[in-house]
Amino acid sequence: MTSITKANFAESNELEQLIAENKLVVVDYTATWCGPCRVVAPLIDQLAQEYGDRAIVVKVDIDQNKDNAKKYGIRSIPAVLVFKNGAVVESLFGTKPYETYSNILETQLRL
Predict the structure, then answer these.
(1) Is 30 assigned a catalytic role?
(2) Which residues, in sequence order, are CB contacts of 4 under 8 Å at separation 6+?
(3) What is the residue extent of each domain of the chain?
(4) Residues 34, 44, 48, 82: which is the catalytic one?
């Protein structure tokens, strides 16, 4: 039996620590009531499974972490931010194909 890796939910304080302590972090800002977020969620889980050994991939519920979403200027969801060495290097809003996310990670891993 194979285990399926999924992106875990992170709270604001935990997220800030992950961003500070890890080279590459992917954050999916989402909400339970957001239809397009349900489209992106399995793609983020796939990223966690494929890149989990090279990047941290987490989800943040904006309803429970409003201050964090505000800090990073999240005004619409789904929003995926990619942090490298503590700084935002990519911001994606709306639904994107999996290749868009994986290509960004591949590029950041090469830099």
Answers:
(1) no
(2) 45, 49
(3) 8-110
(4) 34
